[in-house]
Amino acid sequence: MSSHAGPGVAVTALVITLMAGSGCGTPARHAAERRHPGVLTAAVEPRPAIVPLPRVRGGLPWPVALRTADGTYVVARSGAIRWLQPGVQQTRAQVHHPAGFIWMNRHAGTWATMRRGHLVLLRNREVIWQSTARYAVKDAAHMADIVIGRPGVVFEVHPFGPWFIARWHGPEHRMAATGWPEMWTRSGNLIGFLHRRGSRSSGYAVFSPSGTRLATLATGLSNSVADQSYGDRATGTFWYLTGNGDLVRTDGVATSAVASTRALGFRSMPYLGMLRGGLVQLLSVSANWRDGQVILYPDGQLFARIPGPTGQVTGFAGLSASPGHRSVAYILTNDSGNAATIFLVRPGAAPVAVYRTAHGPSPCAPPPLTWHGPWLLYAPHRGHAVIINTAGSHRVIRLPSTFPGSDGRAVRVQAVSWR
Hints:
The protein is mainly beta. The protein contains 2 helices and 35 strands. The strands form 8 sheets. A 6-stranded antiparallel β-sheet has the order 1-4-3-2-35-34, with no helix packed on it. Strands 25, 26, 27, 28 and 29 form a 5-stranded antiparallel β-sheet that branches. A 4-stranded antiparallel β-sheet has the order 5-6-7-8, with no helix packed on it. The two termini are 30 Å apart.
């Protein structure tokens, strides 16, 4: 968790604009809960009073759930549709989270809070670490940085303030570093962002779990360049760009240059991102995406080049990778209307349009693309959801956008997901 926006906030803001379109707020990093985790549901046949439900012809590759104001419906692989009725089972005991707490790892149930000035880390209800000292901060959400990993925890109370580091079974102590902690790597070492308040340059360094600086990765980077980094916590690898445009990765011990952005055709420093499965995204941030974007395999080999689009469109930066590095999809939405086109990119090939619709996604919403094997689920907000076979024929399966309600009125589908 970090409250730092980064010194190159202008570049980041530009990328968000490219992804979301003008007039949109910053998209949330974590998807909201679809339902309360303690509520259990059971599939039952629709109530007799409800008008008979439609059927999806041809069947589905995998069941999907369609949520409405009247409840959730499931489309089975056979194409039959059933209504899900909330179960009557007793809900599981819930953990009370006080105001100002933050999630450190929601999937693992790890969160942070402040108790009488002490920083406390918990896994569900169990305290796994507590600071020895007390800190003058309102709550955990007001901490500048809290970074946890296998070796322990490092935190910064106020922006550009001192760092404190601790192993899981020991007290914290102050580190000799200025900037903020970035991530724990798979080697067990810590990556730190080096920056002094008001400075025009930045860098990166590696620290041991005890807080000793082990190596300096880069210094003297312009803030706009230093802002282009990515901590891949799934693999424990940190990626960053150097001043001469080299793409570098490190696991906290071994550091290697993976590719040259200049050799890849970028005339200015690109945006650096990471896709599902470790694919690397390098995106031109110049006007009209002049240099397009390049997708690399984790080892730096070229996956595909995607030329910049023509006309006024949004969504070019919002790529969605399929499992197994088989393909990448993205949606281009026309700025002048709602028309949208889904493009599919396979390794070494040019983008291919696989679906067009006159009613595309909201420019402020994340790309509504989710995968199940080679099948792509496209669910625009208040639009018509479809499933696209990205292998071979590009078959399109249309899903219901409304259901007949018990009062005779049509009930609109609000969200669609693989089940």
